[in-house]
Amino acid sequence: MPGYGDSPPAEMVATAQGRVVFLERVLQELGMRRPVLVSPSMSGRFALPFLLGRGDRLAGFVPIAPVGTKDYTAEQYQQVQTPTLILYGARDTRLGPQALQSLRHLPRHRVAVVPDAGHACYLDKPEDFHRALLGFLRQLK
């Protein structure tokens, strides 16, 4: 992601709207139509504004203890009709439950807690994580 890790800062992604445009361009370049957006941790800064502004372009959304959930109101979340699987590790006592407090306002959500896993539940318990993810994907139309 631009501006994170070893990536150079990018002026384009300095605002939420810029991050929406960036993600839209990435999906367009990849030729993806109605993808399922999987968003762990820091990627929430990109995925959440995209979900709220362009959620109709997604077949599904899978936030994994994303950051930035408090930046939006319950009313904003209630407007989103994208099927969502809220996922986090049971040992993630900070970001997972914090994100759930906001994301539970999404009307079409399910919650899956990966047992004995921390913040990076997809690394701690990959089989349990993939079982939950694949179960969600199978239920999408």
TrEMBL record:
Pfam families membership: Abhydrolase_1
What GO CC terms are in its UniProt record? cytoplasm
Give yes or no: UniProt keyword Ligase: no
Primary location class:
cytoplasm
Q: Where is the AB hydrolase-1 domain?
A: 71-126
Keyword annotations of the record: Cytoplasm
Q: Where in the cell is it found?
A: Cytoplasm
Read off the PANTHER family from this record.
Answer: PROTEIN ABHD14A, PROTEIN ABHD14B-LIKE
The name this protein goes by in its record: ABHEA protein
Species name: Smutsornis africanus (Double-banded courser)
